[in-house]
Sequence to fold (84 residues):
Amino acid sequence: RVNHTAYCALSPRADKDLFLEFCEDFDYYPVVFNALQTVDQKRVAVYHTNVILCIGEAFAVVCLSCIDNAQERKSVVAQLNSDG
Fold:
């Protein structure tokens, strides 16, 4: 919240348009990406962003192997680094 950055892994529970509207309304910088997990040998969306991302005051834990798209993965890492 300090950096006003919000992260959203898209899924049936996370709507991109609503997320972007939230960010605009509350002055947050949006970081949108797809996060996938393997279920029955198929890649399916992770149901919630907090399954793969945790941000503390001085650290972040992210399961980068869930972000298959290289550009999205790079964007998430860059924003986390930018926010310190």
Strands lie at 5-10, 29-34, 36-39, 42-45, 53-55, 60-62. The chain has one domain: 5-83. The CA atoms of residues 39 and 45 lie 10 Å apart.
